[in-house]
Amino acid sequence: MLINTKIPVSYLFNKVKYEIFYVLIIGTLVHYLTTQFENIIPVMPITVPAFIGTAISVILSFKLSQSYDRWWEARKIWGSIVNHSRSFVLQLQSFVSRENQNEVKEISFRHIAWCYSLGQSLRGLDPTENLANFISKEDLEEIEKQSNKPLALLQLNTLQILELKEKKAMSIFSQIQLNNTLVNFSNAMGMAERIKNTVFPVTYRIFLHFFIYIFIVTLSIALRDIKSYFEIPLLLTISTMFFLLERSATHMQDPFRNRPTDTPMTAIARTIEINIKELLKESEIPKPLQPENFYLS
């Protein structure tokens, strides 16, 4: 997630460097043709590129709105995971008998592993990375048998809670309440996976780029009487604004792509780890994750 700090110009330039190069070629070529074939190419009224630019602005605003909705929904999902995680541990401490508090710690640490594993899985990275710090070797071997590692961790917690109920360490009403919380985790995971697996139509981006290039061509023809040393920078400036907005929307529409603009799942999982370990009165509490330059992962 981008933080409220100065974003390097190099980061912005790298997002649209190819588009800027294409605009430079198109603008130079059109200016050359309008100069050499001035009598053949008709005069382009400035209202034509103005109309196309207005249409592009409307389309861009729609795409930005839809992309931000996807990003904000992802952030709300992880916000709910934070809230339910705190409640989950408090419920365990309240419902499970005192002589079984070691199992409360085991379930809680397994839940920390679930948070990290879910974030890694959504980003397409190794979902078992660093899980050995929170779960046993037996648990690792068990979840390796399943393709959905976060779901396997939820199952292990569910089965252990069932065992606690069967040996009278908690009441059936306590088990029902804990299962409801686990269902909330499963629902949150499903909603995040839905966002991850629902692709924003690629044709939308292709058509938008096509219209931007048409706008550049018409604007260049309309500005045929302006010197090239003024026209080309103007085309680059206007097109760069359009392409930056489009690329920002494209990045936001997939909040789990492991980019600087995505949801800070690792930082959120670290916050959950800190909260849970403090509730368990652990001695070794990690520090909150710090931003990497201009973003938080």
Task: Walk me through this protein's architecture.
Helix content is 71%, strand content 0%. The chain has 9 helices and no strands. It has one domain (9-279). Helix 2 (47-95) packs antiparallel against helix 6. The chain has helices spanning 9-36, 47-95, 101-122, 137-143, 149-166, 172-197, 202-222, 228-252, 265-279. It has 297 residues and is mainly alpha-helical. It starts with 8 loop residues before the first helix and ends in an 18-residue tail after the last helix.
Name the descriptors.
9 helices
Topology of helices and strands:
Layout: H1 9-36, H2 47-95, H3 101-122, H4 137-143, H5 149-166, H6 172-197, H7 202-222, H8 228-252, H9 265-279
Helix pairs in contact: 1-7, 1-8, 2-3, 2-6, 2-7, 2-8, 2-9, 3-5, 3-9, 5-6, 7-8
Tally of separate helices: 9
Which class of secondary structure composition applies to the elements? Answer: mainly alpha
Q: Helical residue percent?
A: over 70%
The end-to-end span amounts to: 6 Å
What gross morphology would you assign?
Answer: elongated
Give the low-confidence spans. none
Rg over CA atoms = 27 Å
Number of domains: 1
Element pattern in H and E: HHHHHHHHH
Task: Determine the mean pLDDT.
Answer: 89
Strand content: under 5%
Largest sheet: none
**Number of distinct beta strands:** 0
